[in-house]
Amino acid sequence: MKKSAYLIIALSLLIVLGSYKGIASASGKIQVAVSVLPQAYFVERVGGNRVNVQVMIPAGASPEMYEPTPQQLVRLSDADIYIKVGAPAFPFEEKYLHVIAGKNKKMTMVNMSYGTRYREQDPHVWLSPFCVKIAARNIYQALSLYDPQYRDYYGKNLASFLIDIEELNRKNRTLLAGKKGYTFLVYHPAWGYFADEYGLKQMAVEEEGKIKGASHIKEVIDTARRKGIKVIFVQKGFDRKSARTIAHEIGGKVMEVDPLERDWLKGMGAFAEILNQVLRK
């Protein structure tokens, strides 16, 4: 049986299971589903021991290509809240969220990035500390409305998280203070929000998940050579072959980074440290 047929069966099961409460729900925890791993970190920081989080797109999978499994869709029947990334041009959410929401009528859909000024064709809002502050507050509001007796608990967790975000931001600004206007090279354009926040420029091989063509690659290589760029960043777990070819042309190397790191604070700090070491005018 083809995968599409399994998806239809799983979605049909959601109708039958719509009023079912699983073991975790019986324990009193709020069942929260999210699209990507960093969101799980945000929800857990605010929700603490009051939440169980299900991540739809697993580690190593591409948000542009991933399809939910039948098992995931069935488990969503237990979800109380779905925290979506909410930014435009996020293929997974554009393709599947309306279907999921229609099959689980009791699930509350929350846009974590409501109030964010979006970059064109860039859904990676979780890579901006400023945007994550907005997301954290939206998550707090959603949990407090759903579970008002624990509003103070969520508020304390939110305050602690916001302090950590601001400390991260302070450290990153200190590290990158002398790098404003510098360009870094990536294969997939995931770091645009980060670049904007710290006055950097992201140059990407791909656009909307596709390579633009030979002329664009030549332009990227020429620009990298002119600027003395010696590193091309690739997303952790993704094929490095094409990136190696470009790295060879610029006399540089491929470096793996993870824009989907679940430990968001650690991942963001690590990326700033790497940029501080490799950026050249």
Structure explained in plain terms:
It is built from eleven helices and ten strands. With 281 residues, it is α/β, with parallel strands linked by helices. The protein has two domains: 3-171, 3-Layer(aba) Sandwich (Rossmann fold); 177-278, Nitrogenase molybdenum iron protein domain (Rossmann fold). The strands form three sheets. Strands 2-1-3-4 form a four-stranded parallel beta sheet, sandwiched between helices. A four-stranded parallel beta sheet has the order 6-5-9-10, with helices on both faces. Strands 7-8 form a two-stranded antiparallel ribbon. Strand 5 (183-186), helix 8 and strand 6 (201-204) form a beta-alpha-beta unit. Helix 3 packs across helix 6 (129-146) and helix 6 (129-146) runs antiparallel to helix 7. The radius of gyration is 20 Å and the shape is globular. 39% of the residues are buried.
What is the CATH topology of the largest domain?
A: Rossmann fold
Number of strands: 10
CATH architecture of the largest domain: 3-Layer(aba) Sandwich
**Strands ordered across the widest β-sheet:** 2-1-3-4
The structural class is alpha/beta
CATH class category name of the largest domain: Alpha Beta
- Number of separate domains: 2
Total DSSP helices: 11
Strand content: 5-15%
Characterize the biggest β-sheet. Answer: 4 strands, parallel
Secondary structure elements and their pairing?
Elements: H1 3-16, H2 23-26, E1 30-34, H3 37-47, E2 51-55, H4 70-75, E3 81-84, H5 91-103, E4 108-111, H6 129-146, H7 151-176, E5 183-186, H8 192-197, E6 201-204, E7 206-207, E8 210-211, H9 214-227, E9 231-235, H10 241-249, E10 253-257, H11 264-278
Parallel strand pairs: 1-2, 1-3, 3-4, 5-6, 5-9, 9-10
Antiparallel strand pairs: 7-8
Helix pairs in contact: 3-6, 3-7, 6-7, 7-11
